[in-house]
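Archive entry. Fields below.
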Amino acid sequence: MTASSSRSTLGLWLLSGEWRAHRLQIAVAICAIALGVALGFAVHLINAAAFNEFSAAARSLSGQSDLQVRGVQSTFDESLYPLLAQRPEIELANPVLELDVAIPGNSGDRRNATLKILGLDIFRAAIISPDVIGIPDEDRLFDMLEDDAIFLSPAAMGWLKVKRGDTLQLRVGTQAIKLRVAGGLVRTRAGQRLGVMDIGAAQWRFQRLGQLSRIELKLVRGIDHDRFKTALARDLGERYLVTETADQEARVANMSRAYRVNLNMLALVALFTGAFLVFSTQALSIVRRRSQFALLRVIGWTRQQLLRQILLEGALLGSLGSLLGLGLGYLAAAGAIYVFGGDLGSGFFSGVKPRLHFDSLAASVFFLLGLAVTLLGSAAPAAEAAKAKPAVALKPGSEDTALSRLANPWPALTCLGLGALFAGLPPVFELPVFGYLAIALLLIGGIALMPRLSASIFSMLLSMMRRMSGTLPALALARLANAPNQAAIALGGIVSSFSLVVAMAIMVASFRVSVDDWLRHILPADLYVQTTAAGDARGLYPEEMKSIAAAPGVSRIDFFRSSQIMLDPARPAVALTARPIDLTDPASILPLTADVMEPSLLPEDAIPIWVSEAMVDLYGFKAGTRVDLPLGAPGPAPSSGRTPPAFIVAGVWRDYGRQFGAIQMRLSDYRALTGDQKVNDAALWLESGVKPEQVITWLKRLPFGEALEFSTPGEIRTLSLNIFDRSFAVTYLLEGVAIIIGLSGVAASFSAQTLARAREFGILRHIGMTRGQILGMLGMEGACLTALGIMFGSMIGWCISLILVFIVNPQSFHWTMQMSLPWRGLAAVALTLLALASLTALMSGRHAVSGKAVRAVREDW
Amino acid sequence: MLELRNIDKAYAGGRQVLTSLSYLLQPGEYVAIMGESGVGKSTLLNLIAGLDSPDRGEILINGTAISSLSDNAATRLRRKEFGFVFQAFHILPHLTLRQNVALPLLLNDAAVKHAEERAERMLGAVGLPGRAGDFPRQLSGGELQRVAIARALVHRPALILADEPTGNLDPDTAHEILMLIRQEIKENGASGILVTHSHAAAATADRTLLLTKEGLSPAAQRIK
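PREDICTED_STRUCTURE:
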């Protein structure tokens, strides 16, 4: 038997003895860490699975092409195709028409109501993207070229509830078209909803004659890709983009990055509160065992051995919690993907069916993160225990001095100062890294200031109390004032959980109220009309517009044309809306910010556009800036030396619908530039006394009435707020978990403290206090602490919410919002927390004032 | 065995408790130190054990100045050469009696099996045979102090420091415990210092010293 094994045995005895005696506290600490790690790991796994599947699905559509040529608008003239196909550097050019086509009858769920359809040249696509080729029946090989045949992926067939030979009804503008399901596809990803047709048939049936979405290029072997890409981009001009698969992946990553990072940060908040719980558990456990450690030091344990032992306990807690968390996280992710499909309500990853993979690297990172926060939580109490003078620590009553370092306000003030400094720093890689750091520092600094603040406040209350009678309140306040460091640990648990609840509640309420106000502003009409819910194939022709405008009872009608333009291949497309806008009063229909040009200052040689806040952040489109937009009538490429029109940013408006940028311009300017006379939507103002139902009834009688959809502003608002609430459902869940962990912290702190105070209670019983009086005193202590914690938590939470509302949100999603405080909800949570925490203090005390506590006064500890 | 040379010590508040204190404790000698409260008896024990440092002077343990040692070296010396008995017992509540008594042996790198066997023998020697698997909560005050004595002697230290070991016990049990301490010290060939307020307790030592502001001086009588 070696020396190290006898010391290990000693360590094991001490550890197992302690854990056996305090199973509940240890279990709570392990569960807190496990919950934090599980949330973080689950959110990461779900996001990674959804993101990877979404990327893979998007990549599979591009096949094995080297480069892709796209228009800056959703489609471009096919005359470019022969020009490219004839270039000697290009071995093969594959023209593609890609459309999101609306499915009639599925319009209730607007997000999922479109089917992606690829129009392919079968002979070329078979070489570049063989996976997405249709499989016809053996006796109907020519189905691949038939104009009524569509081939569907298994996921699309399942979703649409059709099989080979069935008829699939789709809608183009106001017209319905019927296609025959001619078979499946060679190979698609699980959950990928896709339809494939002959390109000529697709152009004809979906009224896109002569138009393409992209041309995929396979280069001759030996051609320098980068050089050729640069040369081709230069030749094609600014109306076309030459992209690679990597650009597409970057676009997909950019699209959801802020959302994914924010979700991960929220999950880490849960881990943080878990870490605080471990700190309080460890700190109070070490305080309780202060004289035991002192004895071990007296009889021969070195400081290092003691430090090692306590850190070992922390490491074991962290390891067990992290391992449990990884398992729980994996199960939670599997469950969430099974139930929600990996989208978590954001809408970024709809239409894919992700497969969960155990990511060992991420698992290691989250394991180490859980272990690190636990060790951090153990380090300060361990260092104090090792530094304590054994002769002093052996004496009873020195417990609060053990935590005296906590009362030093300077580290707390440093954290707060740094937090304030970080809050003013710009984003890093378009992420609010410093904003998150500022929140963490504010939280740590605020909690670290609690011992000093609570000592001052409780001392003040105690001196006020002396002028009044009441033994119990005086005893409770005396304890809180004279042992502020132990009180501060319980206080920290309340402050950390309540401040996070306040911050999240204010942020979500501010966002919701802002979205609601915004919806009221952008929906001024009485009735909105559109052709089938969504997709590229919707639209109204001039004759149909005239018919709608002729509806009786309509006092005013505005038509909208919505499309997309691509300004940067690495970013998602920008939404472009053309509509009637009054140059002298754009604020009447646009929710403008303060960044607006005076209408009288608008130059005559430039077309005014109004951009969303995201355009300012992402593309530098500030008010008054002259900008270039790739807009104009689509013509053969390379474009023929026409002078591109000049645009000027006339104002910036708030847009909560599209975080990647949106532009609005006058419909007349758009039509003059593009020649596109179609519109997508109409806003109808009704004469007084006319009800929307009357107009809807009349419009439904039109020849194309069946293809129209009607919404009142109220319905759109309700639908939008439902989507908002669904998007934030996961936030509410994380918030709830933070509260549970916080309350567990309160329970652990109170129960650890009352255990440590068994001797004190024994003495109080001896000198004549009843059990009821001791419980009353504990209840008062709990209520006083919780009330103070709620007060400080509200203040810190409000500060954090300022950072979330005015820094994190604008830097992540490029929109600003107004501040709103959900007083009632917060008051309800505060009262519940007050009741629960007081109850927890009482329940913890019940054990301590049992008969054993009276015996404790005779025992050494 | 132990030599105190001109020890000065003041409390943190500045009050001087020990001034130019000198004494030579012979091997195998068991002395009792008496004195008024606050005169510095417990402080003197802490200084001897290396748990505190004198402001001036030297404390030599077998020729080694303990105050000149690093914290780790002083801890190793304490681990090997000292045994402690406290008024407040200080038995670890979540370890069995066997484990509590075996602690000093394990700290001195003894094999676990040997340590446990020796701990059980020591428990038998102090009057607690067959109780090795019990937990401290199952014991009375007198029994707990017996465990503390077993723990103090289990590793055969050269010097036993006992600080008011019977302060919490009734007179009969106190006498039993004091005689046990004496017996074990003598059987193990150790030296001992007993700090006490009780003349009866002091009488169980070889000689009694009185600690005053002037230093250590022999007390009036010697009782066997």
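CURATOR_NOTE: Chain A touches chain B at residues 1-3, 5-7, 9-10, 13-14, 17-18, 20-21, 291-292, 295-304, 389-391, 394, 396, 858-861 (CB under 8 Å).
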